[in-house]
Amino acid sequence: MEASSSNRSYFCKNCSQPLIIHSSLSQIDGSTLSELSGNLDLDGHIATTGELSQTGDSEYDDNSSGLEEHQSASNSFLIIGDSMLETKSHDLAIREMFDMGHDMRITSKLFDILSDKSIVDHPLCEDCADSLIDKMDQKLKTLEEECKVYRECLGKLEKKTKNDNPESNLEHLQQRVIQLQLEEKRLIEELTKVEAQKKKFDEKIQAQEAEINVLLEEKDKFKREHNYLKKTLFEIDDERLNVENSKKYITRHLDILRKTNVFNATFHIWYSGHFGTINGFRLGRLPNHPVDWTEINAAWGQTTLLLFALARKINLTFERYRLVPYGNHSFIETLEDKPKELPLYGSGGFRYLLNNKFDQAMIAFLDCMSQVVAEIERVDKSWYCPYRMDKEKIEDTKRNNCYSIRIQYNSEEEWTKALKYMLTNLKWILTWVARPETSERCDSSVSTTK
């Protein structure tokens, strides 16, 4: 039985070491367990020793009855061989298994009872049990010392109670009660006064809260007005800044316009190789550069318009001629009894070369330019024209060259050179008229005339 109990492994609940269960635990029966557990019903957990033995006997009887049936089924004689020996060993193994199950259940139930009845889980090994006993002994000594101290204090209190006079204690307590009643009365009077003061303070607080509410409403109203005025101020400030920026922009733009020369911006006189140009239109023709007559006519239209505008700027009225700017069909009108038109445009060809009206128009244009030059020299003695103009000729005094502005009986090179010099003189006239002091002088003269 001891060997069968050792087949079940138990471990210490404290140190988890394997335990060897003593064989005496298997000898405890169900009644002993019931007494240990306080008459606890063992049904459903373990079976009693009688039940287990009955169960084992019944099973053994079943096996034996089966053996008898086997014997009756044979031919009236019994043969004992290896099969019978195996059946007997099997029955013994079954019997030992049931005995081992009974021991295991008894042992497990015993450990459960011990665990429920104490604060320590079971089973425990011998070392852990000895350690637990030592701790319990120390705790017992501590409790005995505390009990001893409590007994001494209780004895002192009993002696003190016996020594005191009960009557003096009663008088003392009555006096104490009277003092407490007087103190209570005084505190009640003070409480009444404090409540009256509290009521007055509550009324004052309510009045002040009402005043605070009025002030808060006025504060909100003031904030709204302040925000509105601040917003208005920001808008006015933004408008002022916009006006100042606009003023700065307009002033800067006005300065640019004052410094801008309308004539220079409108009429750009320059050169392109051997050709003089006005606003990009070439004036003249060369054998190796045959300029189209539409471009030449456009250049003459721009030139006529420029001289016409310059004359008006300096308040000059031409003698003998009147300029009529008309685009690429501009012309000059003579101021005679019988006025005639001199065209400042051409179309080329042989018939055109035989017609000298174009030459007369160019000579008349030089005459008008000479009148403008004479007027400028009269006003400004220090000014001079780079190329001298005399009737139909333009003279380069530095190189002693003279070129005719006629196209008949003249080479295209000389005609182109004369037109280039004419545009140069016109550029000088434009520069003088475009000066600020010239503009102020002309404006003052116009106002005086009016």
Write the layout of secondary structure elements.
Blueprint lengths: L1 H4 L4 E2 L6 E2 L10 H7 L12 H25 L8 H36 L8 H38 L2 H94 L2 H5 L2 E4 L2 E4 L2 E3 L9 H21 L7 E4 L6 E4 L6 E3 L6 H5 L2 H23 L8 E3 L2 E4 L4 E4 L7 H22 L2 H14 L1
Antiparallel strand pairs: 1-2, 3-4, 4-5, 6-7, 7-8, 9-10, 10-11
Keywords: Coiled coil
Family: Belongs to the beclin family.
InterPro entries: Atg6/Beclin, Atg6/Beclin_C_sf, Atg6/beclin_CC, Atg6_BARA
Quick tags:
three-stranded antiparallel β-sheet; 450 residues; 12 helices; disordered C terminus; disordered N terminus; mainly alpha; single chain; elongated
Q: Give the tally of structural domains.
A: 3
> What does the radius of gyration come to?
72 Å
Specify the overall morphology: elongated
The spatial strand order of the largest sheet comes to: 3-4-5
The CATH topology of the largest domain turns out to be Actin-binding Protein, T-fimbrin, domain 1
Mean pLDDT across all amino acids: 78
CATH class of the largest domain: Mainly Alpha
Q: Any guess at the CATH architecture of the largest domain?
A: Orthogonal Bundle
Q: What share of residues are in beta strands?
A: 5-15%
Percentage of residues in helical conformation: 55-70%
Let me know the largest β-sheet: 3 strands, antiparallel
Identify low-pLDDT runs: 1-7, 39-88, 446-450
| Oligomeric nature of the chains | single chain
Give the terminus-to-terminus CA distance. 154 Å
CATH level 4 superfamily of the largest domain: Autophagy protein 6/Beclin 1
> Could you give the count of β-strands?
11
Count of DSSP H/I helices: 12
